[in-house]
Design a protein that fits this description.
The protein has helices at 21-28, 91-98, 108-120, 127-133, 145-157, 166-172, 183-188, 208-211, 213-216, 248-253, 255-260, 264-268, 274-277, 282-287, 294-302, 399-405, 412-425, 436-454, and strands spanning 2-6, 9-13, 47-54, 57-64, 77-79, 200-202, 221-223, 233-236, 239-243, 305-309, 315-319, 324-326, 329-330, 337-344, 350-358, 366-377, 380-389, 396-397. By secondary structure, it is α+β, with helices and mostly antiparallel strands. The protein folds into two domains: 1-191, Beta-grasp domain (Ubiquitin-like (UB roll), Roll), CATH 3.10.20; 228-464, Uridine Diphospho-n-acetylenolpyruvylglucosamine Reductase, domain 3. Helix 3 packs across helix 4. The N and C termini lie far apart (66 Å).
């Protein structure tokens, strides 16, 4: 039996663990404000807030319920647009009305729920962060400017928010119903989920449900995203260890990663949307084995080494580049779990970058992506790792190209000599995301972009003329 709070009431259901929360919300609980749109996590019409106790604190994140397994919300709080009901409109709903942010209304509940997430976050709310909160919501009527104006009105209401206890503050200031105050205690009273003994490992499900929606509903699931042994980001000496169940938002919020990667935020904001970043796990991105996985490209360039563990507790390590043996094929036994990935933290002479081109800037799969890490000794490149996605059957480490950089001076000539080697290492195909010729050109330009971003004066475009 799966138990969770849905708005202000306890739900107990014997539905299969693989059922998506969207279907339970609409068909079993008649919360029809949560809409069915794409069923692929793209449109945001089904957005809910999911609250859970983390280290004793109640924290909420937005998620797309069309990709959220019922098993993943046991012991948690799921908030729909109906759960925000108070006498009259909530301030977020009122902002949408006053700014004329709704026309046909189909997408409006998702926008309202996403913006309400700002009230519950433990971060100060700015105009930038409020607009980012709705980056997973699509509207086909308004042109977005009116919705952005509504978001700015919400920011004004939250200018004095208490980030230490945002729930209590939001209730006190009329942004949330008062029953939110009892949610933490009610969650503590829900018994833990029984030990997972299923045959299908599940992380965030953000790609698995897109590929196998019909079969996942009846799959014998073994949820992994809430396993404490697979969570957390820690520093061990000069290495960083990232738990396999960490989601992209965990990476964004990590003080360790923020301290070592100045451009962490713009890099990771290219990975899907806020609700998907709140759900998709690091291990899931690896095991999905997509040739264009964004996190895979990033950790390949970082020199990631996986720890794989089987049910007996036996573990082994494997460099990430050896994890992929063919298209969608892995050097992983069926009973092994990606426990963590570790990589050396950058030093003061290390430069890291991630570049991606897709048909849409955000919330889209890359045509080509690439990450690069180089280390300098004065004006000489002494170490380099380059990755590329979308140009081979597997996520690719450009070993020969990186070797051509090592020992050479940091100059446009060095990069010019290396670029033809990259062209020999790749084998792109033509598909819906572009022709093979286009992908070859993209990779060349993106490799240049790394160096142009790091050293704009030295690698100006005219230096390649």
């Amino acid at each position: 039996m799966i138990r969770f709070l849905l708005d202000d009431r306890l739900v107990e259901t014997a539905r299969p663990a693989g059922t998506v929360v969207l279907d339970v919300i609409r068909y079993d609980e008649a919360r029809t404000g949560t809409k069915i749109g794409c069923r692929e996590g793209d449109c945001g019409a089904c957005t809910v807030l999911v609250g859970e106790l983390r280290e004793g604190r109640l924290e909420y994140r937005s998620m797309t319920s069309c990709l959220l397994a019922l098993a993943s919300v046991h012991g948690k709080h799921v908030v729909t647009v109906e759960g925000l009901t108070m006498p009259g409109l909530s301030p977020v709903q009122r902002a949408m009305v006053d700014a004329h942010g709704t026309q046909c209304g189909f997408c409006t509940p998702g926008f309202v729920v996403s913006l309400t997430g700002c009230c519950l976050s433990r971060e100060p709310v700015t105009a930038t962060s409020a607009v980012r909160a709705i980056d997973g919501n699509i509207c086909r009527c308004t042109g977005y400017h009116s919705i952005v104006r509504a978001a700015h009105q919400v920011v004004e209401r939250l200018a004095r928010k208490d980030i230490a206890d945002p729930v209590a503050w939001s209730v006190a200031h009329g942004l949330l119903p008062d029953w939110f105050l009892g949610v933490a205690d009610r969650l503590r009273a829900i018994a833990p989920a029984p030990s997972a003994s299923g045959t299908t490992d599940l992380g965030g499900g953000t790609d698995l449900y897109v590929q196998r929606h019909d079969t996942m509903t009846h799959a014998d699931l073994r949820p992994r995203a809430d396993d404490p042994a697979l969570r957390g980001i820690r520093q061990e000496g000069d290495e960083c260890v990232v738990g396999g169940a960490c989601v992209v938002t965990d990476l964004l919020e990590s003080p360790i990663l923020r301290a070592h990667f100045p451009r962490l935020e713009p890099h990771l904001l290219l990975v899907s949307s806020t609700p998907i970043r709140n759900m998709g796990t690091v291990a899931g991105n690896f095991v999905n084995a997509s040739p264009i996985g964004d996190l895979t490209a990033i950790f390949l360039a970082l020199g990631g080494v996986l720890t794989l563990r089987d049910p007996s507790g036996a573990g082994r390590t494997l460099p990430l580049e050896r994890f992929f043996t063919g298209y969608r094929q892995l050097a992983r036994r069926a009973d092994e779990v990606v426990e963590s990935v570790r990589f050396p933290l950058p030093g003061p002479q290390t430069h890291f970058g991630f570049e991606k081109v897709s048909k849409r800037t955000y919330l889209d799969i890359a045509s080509v992506n690439t990450a690069a890490r180089i280390e300098l000794d004065g004006d000489r490149i002494v170490a380099a790792r380059l990755s590329a996605g979308g140009v081979a059957p597997v996520p690719l480490l450009l070993g020969a190209t990186a070797s051509a950089l090592i020992g050479r001076p940091l100059s446009p000539a060095t990069l010019r000599d290396a670029l033809p080697i990259a062209q020999r290492e790749i084998a792109p195909i033509s598909d819906a995301r572009g022709s093979s010729e286009y992908k070859r050109l993209l990779l060349q330009q993106l490799l240049r972009a790394h160096f142009l971003t790091w050293f704009p004066e030295r690698f100006a475009p005219e230096s390649f003329a």
